[in-house]
Design goal:
By secondary structure, this protein is an all-beta fold. It has one helix at residues 254-261, and strands spanning 4-5, 29-30, 42-44, 78-82, 87-89, 100-102, 113-121, 124-128, 137-141, 146-150, 152-157, 162-167, 170-176, 179-180, 189-199, 209-216, 229-233, 244-246, 250-251, 269-273.
Length: 274
């Protein structure tokens, strides 16, 4: 997992920034692979988002519960939240002030997406948050969010070194992957997709595409100004597939990462388990 300097193509309507690495994220830097420095222009892919407006709750009950799912999601579905601007996140619905504020976009310029853990309930929504610590969550006001139901999920089995991608109930990818080494393991947990990047050089260390996740490395906390972001990407070393050789990222064969990048949506849950 290493941040590598990669100048970006500027995408119309987006802020210029840089991201994604094999284990570290940094401004004006992308590194999503266990790799070496390589300068490769990239293009950010932003899926079209179909959203549903949630009517404000009319309940007068002051207590906040986390047991009711007003969307009654079907098996395999998840709820993703989008904010049109900066998003204030609170430690609890009764907190007087936000604990932190997330920018409207990632440092790559991708609109922020959040995986919904619970809600909307009583005008509040509990969100999974990107960054450190892994597994962080916070409450946001429902009126500040738009919602999208997604029927996709990625599951990565570190022991079997396998990645499965299910979309609309169909297994689109079931492939062997390379994972983190013993000294820089791929972290376990429930994460979500934050960025989708196309590299102009498909023969780069990350192959033609990279998918950024909300998780961070447990062992690499800084490299070239980045904070150890975890991603899924292709490779120019196909013989490494199936081996524990990366700095924390997940390497997928280039055919599979191309399919994933062109199908996956922002905010889709990614389960990484041993």
């Amino acid at each position: 997992m290493v941040d590598l300097a990669l100048p970006l193509h500027k995408v119309p309507g987006m802020r210029e920034s840089a991201w994604i690495q094999c284990a570290a994220l940094s401004a004006a830097i992308i590194a999503l692979g266990a790799c070496t420095a390589i300068t490769t222009p990239t293009t950010i892919i932003i899926p079209v988002v179909t959203t549903t407006t949630v009517a404000p709750s009319t309940t007068t009950t002051p207590a906040i519960t986390t047991t009711t799912d007003p969307y009654a999601l079907a098996p395999g579905q998840s709820l993703v939240a989008h904010a049109d601007g900066e998003l204030a996140v609170y430690d609890s619905p009764v907190a007087a002030a936000p604990a932190q504020t997330f920018p409207a976009t990632t440092i790559l310029g991708t609109p922020q997406a959040y995986l919904v853990i619970d809600g909307p309930i009583n005008k509040w929504t509990l969100l999974a948050l990107p960054g450190r610590p892994n597994g962080a969550s916070g409450w946001a006001k429902t009126d500040d969010l738009r919602f999208e139901i997604v029927d996709q999920q990625i599951t990565i089995d570190l022991s079997d070194r396998n990645l499965s991608f299910v979309s609309d109930g169909e297994v689109l990818i079931d492939a062997t992957v390379a994972v983190g080494s013993d000294s820089n393991p791929t972290p376990e947990g429930r994460f979500f997709v934050t960025d989708i990047v196309q590299l102009s050089n498909p023969n780069s260390a990350w192959g033609p595409f990279a998918v950024g996740l909300s998780g961070r490395s447990d062992t690499i906390t800084e490299f070239n100004g980045g904070d150890g972001i975890i991603g899924i990407h292709g490779t120019n070393r196909p013989n490494s597939i199936g081996q524990p050789v990366s700095l924390g990222c997940v390497r997928l064969d280039n055919e599979s990462i191309t399919l994933l990048a062109n199908t996956i949506r922002l905010g889709v849950p990614v389960l990484i388990e041993a």
